[in-house]
Structure of Putative zinc-finger domain-containing protein:
Amino acid sequence: MNEHFADIFTKTACPSQDQLLAYVKGELSAEERHEVELHLQDCDLCSEAVEGLTAISQKDQIPGWLRQAKYNVLQKLRKKTRRRRKSESYLYIAIVTLVVIFLLLAFYWIFHFGTAK
Ligand SMILES: [Zn+2]
């Protein structure tokens, strides 16, 4: 049983999983692709593996564009918060300016009343 199992592998010379993955992703050269396709015709093990890898690589692509969409949303949000932070700092500057003017006026009035006496 074990020997027979080993025989299948040596006789058919299955491509490695990396090669199959490259085949699924279309990263192989025309020659390599042809070799893999020939092999897939008489190897159930590899054609099943390719089916599984196709499903996996398609699954991988979904979080890819989801991540992209998420990234776009996050960037929009970041721009909004940056804008809000900017207007918050303007408000802060305005309050500080008003407080300084008020203090100057207060000092002026204190000084004025002080010299008037
Ligand atoms: Zn095979």
Observations:
- The chain has a mean pLDDT of 80.
- Residues 2-116 form one domain.
- The two ends are 116 Å apart (CA to CA).
